[in-house]
Amino acid sequence: MSDNSQKEIDVLLAEKEVVVNGEKILIKPYSWAQSMKIVQPIEVLLEVVVSNVEKIDLALKNFSKSENKIGQIQTIIDLLDSVDVDKVTESMSYLIQLAIKKPKDYVDELMIDEIFDLGAAIYEVNKSFFKKRLAVMKLPSGK
Predict the structure, then answer these.
(1) What average pLDDT does the segment 53-76 reach?
(2) What is the pTM of this model?
(3) Among candidates 96, 115, 109, 108, which has minimal Cα distance to 30?
(4) Residue 30 buriedness (CB in 10 A; 0-12 / 13-18 / 19+)
(5) Which of 69, 106, 119, 125 could be a cystine partner for 102, CB 3.0 to 4.6 Å?
(6) What percent of the residues of the chain are helix, what percent strand, and what percent coil, each to the nearest 5?
(7) Measured distance CA(16)–CA(122) in Å, rounded
(8) Which residues lie below 8 Å from residue 103, measured CB to CB, with a gap of 6+?
């Protein structure tokens, strides 16, 4: 089997199980329909990233220095202090809702470490999508 064929199979079979509130949740790659729905929330997040590159760079350095989840979460909280939290929260919540097929209320009531674990799993399972397809998205206007 060629390397490309193996990569395609890995993408098609990508999934990860995360335990949240004692419930096993299977994270699968976004479907084509879901990928159409995530464009707007991704654009919001890209705008935040582009507008806060220096702050994010500092946060990533601090994040990697943290030896535990609490330190990593504090780094994220410090970063969020400088952005429009409502827009970021709404966008992130929607991305997670689509990935785990749960309602907004369910996602909004999760603890931050659960969001962190889900977000990492969603990214890992959809890494190919984020790297290949988002690379061609337009940056927010004026950037």
Answers:
(1) 74
(2) 0.70
(3) 96
(4) buried
(5) 106
(6) 70, 5, 25
(7) 8
(8) 97
